[in-house]
Amino acid sequence: MLKVKARTGESVQQMMRRFKKLCEKEGLIRDIKRNNFYEKPSEVNRRKRRKAYRNAQISAKQS
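Structure (tokenized):
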């Protein structure tokens, strides 16, 4: 659970901006959007395989 405490002299808009950045950093918004609609198990597996492939390609380039 994300919590944002008010800093001294901080406006509500600044707190909201920090909260949105924390949500984005945690991937919360992406997960909510992904769970809005049903995704077939085969599509889930395909997405995971593609992500693993991209990560392998990136790590191979860095080596």
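DSSP finds three helices and no strands in the chain. The chain has one domain: 12-62.
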